[in-house]
Prior knowledge:
Elements: H1 13-18, E1 27-28, E2 34-35, H2 38-48, H3 59-85, H4 106-126, H5 140-151, H6 164-174
Antiparallel strand pairs: 1-2
Glutathione (GSH) binds near residues 5, 23 and 38.
Amino acid sequence: MQVDLRSGEQLSEAFRRVNPQCTVPALRTEDGAVLTDNAAITAYLEARYPQPPLLGGTPIEKAEIASWNWRIEFEGLMAIAEALRNSAPAMANRALPGPVDYPQIPELAQRGLARVQQFFATLDTCLAGRDFIATDRFSIADITAVVAVDFARVVKVRVDERHAHLMRWRAAMAQRAAMSL
Ligand SMILES: N[C@@H](CCC(=O)N[C@@H](CS)C(=O)NCC(=O)O)C(=O)O
């Protein structure tokens, strides 16, 4: 099911019946459960389809990947959302996702932008001398980071020559078969 966020379909009665939190993504599993958080969907899919492991193999790999994935969500995706949602006229009163309206706080948009710049610098430092973000293998952290780096375009932040490692990594990610689906 496609949900058009621009026209507010996530707030419709039909979608509220699927996910009362009015957010995407939502995944209905084969046995009818509805999972409404990225973390839950990721955990379910890894358990259901364990190969290749995207959440790590060894205990320390699992920990490193969980740590980086959380940082990318918190320092990257949430910073972008903070910048966008507190400034875009189309999101007036929609500063947070969900069924409750919240007004924009312009200062949070400014802070969000600063955090996005810092996030790009953090990823660039992380990728110096390595091919993947969390471990020496491709993981969910790389997937989340591709989404975050690309999504930053909505607040006009792009990878440039200040981020040589990040640029190399993003070009390598583009070569992966799944990226051209
Ligand atoms: N609980 C969800 C929240 C995801 C989320 O915030 N989704 C945003 C789009 S990326 C959304 O549904 N926004 C709806 C809105 O802006 O009203 C998760 O962690 O996966």
